[in-house]
């Protein structure tokens, strides 16, 4: 299986698709729009983490700029009813850390705003990925996404300790968090919001 490609982009005329020249061989690679736009104007060699899908009638390469995105893609295609095409659509529509946040907060409303995701699929994603993302979080403990989740979890626990219901705490924290606040800032702001109710 192909797991990594390093070469030069020779064709990028189709959104979300590259042809990469690796030592004279051109590989068709499908990417999420996040990866595509980051590399679109890149000159020189690029390196992509590849996930290879072998079908009866095709061999499809999916390329990702970082391992974090590829790992999330692999977690997504394990979900019942989510194929590689839908996984790429999801990753093209939402940043990996925001997606992880939706799953951890069981925010099915936000997930249904993604193209091709109905209520049932959103619920399935939350149920089937909740445990998988815990392992995902431990693998990527250094990433910003995990730090955001940790700050949120601590803030939610603190609000629960102060007597607020878990659902109420999750709702407030997800509304006020922009990904840059510390746990302390989240708690302080959440208490101000809750005091006004």
Structure description:
The protein is α+β, with helices and mostly antiparallel strands. The chain has three domains: 4-65, Nucleic acid-binding proteins (OB fold (Dihydrolipoamide Acetyltransferase, E2P)), CATH 2.40.50.140; 68-128, DNA polymerase, domain 1 (Orthogonal Bundle); 144-196, Helicase, Ruva Protein, domain 3 (Orthogonal Bundle). The protein contains nine helices and five strands. The chain has helices at 33-39, 67-76, 84-93, 96-104, 108-111, 119-139, 144-161, 166-176, 183-196, and strands at 4-11, 17-22, 25-31, 45-54, 59-64. The protein has a five-stranded mixed beta barrel with strand order 1-2-3-5-4. The longest helix is centred in the middle third of the chain and has 21 residues, at 119-139.
> How many distinct folded domains?
3
Quote the beta fraction.
15-25%
**Biggest sheet: strands side by side, in what order?**
1-2-3-5-4
**What is the CA–CA distance across the termini?**
56 Å
Q: How would you classify the helix and strand content by structural class?
A: alpha+beta
What percent of residues adopt helix (DSSP H or I)? 40-55%
What is the string of helix and strand elements?
A: EEEHEEHHHHHHHH
For the record, the CATH class of the largest domain is Mainly Beta
The tally of beta strands, per DSSP, is: 5
Shape category? elongated
How would a crystallographer describe the biggest sheet? 5 strands, mixed, barrel
- The CATH H-level superfamily of the largest domain is Nucleic acid-binding proteins
Count of alpha/pi helices: 9
């Amino acid at each position: 299986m192909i797991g990594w490609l390093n070469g030069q982009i020779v064709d990028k005329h189709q959104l979300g698709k590259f042809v990469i020249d690796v030592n004279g061989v051109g590989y068709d690679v499908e990417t999420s729009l996040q990866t595509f736009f980051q590399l679109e104007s890149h000159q020189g060699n690029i390196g992509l983490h590849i996930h290879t899908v072998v079908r009866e009638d095709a061999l499809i390469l999916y390329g990702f700029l970082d391992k974090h995105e590829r790992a999330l893609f692999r977690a997504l295609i394990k979900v019942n009813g989510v194929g590689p095409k839908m996984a790429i659509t999801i990753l093209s529509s939402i940043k990996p850390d925001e997606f992880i946040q939706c799953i951890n907060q069981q925010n099915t409303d936000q997930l249904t705003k993604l193209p091709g995701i109905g209520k049932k699929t959103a619920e399935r994603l939350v149920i089937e990925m909740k445990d998988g993302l815990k392992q995902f979080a431990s693998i990527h403990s250094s990433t910003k996404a995990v730090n955001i989740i940790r700050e949120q979890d601590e803030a939610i626990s603190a609000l629960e300790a102060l007597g607020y219901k878990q659902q109420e705490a999750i709702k407030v924290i997800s509304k006020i968090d922009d990904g840059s606040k510390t746990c302390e800032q989240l708690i302080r702001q959440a208490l101000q919001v809750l005091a006004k109710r």
